[in-house]
Input
Amino acid sequence: MESSLNVTEQDREYMREAFRYMRQAGLIDKTGGPFGAVIVQDGKVIGAGGNTVIRDSDPTAHAEINAIRAACRALHTVNLARAILYTSCECCPMCYAAAYWARITKIFYGASWTDYNDIFDDSQICQDSTKPYPQRLLMPQQILRDEAQKICTEFRAMPDGARY
Output
């Protein structure tokens, strides 16, 4: 159910643009699932994309990821502060995290997880990620921590090391 709180007609138009990418990717080009995304900053579309998981043989090629990559390339930055993500469907954990890391300010989404969980079920990933490591499906296990920490220490000492 849509909340009209702070939603403008322009927001709806950007979402409809995300829906065009959704339709193109899922129904016409069949490059992946029916997902589309548009990123807007200062009233201008700076990145957009549809799902290309199948076409690219890349499980990370979600519409939101493709749109974030396009926006970052267009602006030559990894920081999309002030940008808004319009995505056809509620973000999976990977896409939410990518938007978070890109410093996107706001996310609008169309369909919710429960609207398409018969096709893709993102809720299982969220549930799994809250379990203790030994109980998770992929059972993360730490090894060679000391060696990793040494490289982190070396990186910290570099005056020109990347910070984001």
The two ends are 36 Å apart (CA to CA). The longest helix spans residues 9-28.
